[in-house]
């Protein structure tokens, strides 16, 4: 599979999972450390529009602020740093992530809005958890007044306002909850 070339000022869905589907996060501390490593290696190179960290995979919705080479190297540093720490903590060796992180270029705002919702609803998709209370997703950062690295204002403008942001998430969530019966 040919990897999408990353371009400055473009939006991407970045995701990856553990090699052979293994967990890449075994504790909340692992997830907190991963988020800190994102800040350490990527904070000036990308803008984050949404994220979700599940046990065996993660999703990021980003915009590149730098050229591909710098961003790709920063991601490599992030993944290597995290894998080394995780392997040391769990007494394992070898690769932690699948070979290359996946990336899909987003070509329009409608796709961007749908992807942000999809990423936030991931706990519902995989574990039937309430996405509103899931700690390792960016959803709650949009409802808060606390300082955040997330592009809160820009995302809320994509949805027109906070009320519509919440409404759109609930509409998709309600769709997932519906059951269909055939008569």
Automatic annotation (TrEMBL):
Picking any one GO biological process from the record gives:
DNA transposition
Supply one GO molecular-function term: DNA binding
Looking at the record, the residues that make up the Transposase IS200-like domain are 7-122
Read off the SUPFAM superfamilies from this record. Answer: Transposase IS200-like
| Source organism (scientific name) | Flavobacterium pectinovorum
Its recorded name reads Transposase IS200 like
What top-level branch of life does the organism fall under?
Answer: Bacteria
Phylogenetic placement of the source organism: Bacteria, Pseudomonadati, Bacteroidota, Flavobacteriia, Flavobacteriales
UniProt cross-references to PANTHER family, sorted A to Z: TRANSPOSASE IS200-LIKE DOMAIN-CONTAINING PROTEIN, TRANSPOSASE, Y1_TNP DOMAIN-CONTAINING
Question: InterPro entries from the entry?
Answer: Transposase_17 (IPR002686), Transposase_17_sf (IPR036515)
């Amino acid at each position: 599979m040919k990897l999408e070339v990353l371009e400055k000022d473009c939006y991407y869905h970045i995701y990856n999972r553990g090699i052979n589907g293994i967990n890449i996060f075994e504790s909340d501390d692992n997830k907190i450390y991963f988020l800190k490593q994102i800040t350490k290696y990527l904070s000036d190179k990308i803008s984050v529009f949404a994220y979700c960290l599940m046990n065996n995979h993660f999703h990021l919705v980003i915009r590149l602020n730098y050229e591909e080479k710098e961003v790709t190297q920063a991601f490599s540093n992030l993944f290597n740093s995290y894998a080394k720490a995780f392997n040391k903590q769990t007494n394992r060796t070898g690769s932690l992530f699948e070979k290359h992180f996946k990336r899909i270029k987003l070509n329009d705002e409608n796709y961007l809005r749908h992807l942000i919702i999809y990423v936030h609803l991931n706990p519902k998709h995989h574990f039937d958890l309430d996405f509103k209370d899931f700690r390792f997703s960016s959803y709650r950062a949009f409802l808060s007044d606390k300082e955040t690295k997330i592009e809160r204002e820009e995302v809320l403008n994509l949805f027109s306002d906070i009320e519509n942001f919440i409404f759109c998430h609930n509409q998709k969530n309600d769709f997932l909850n519906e059951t269909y019966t055939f008569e």
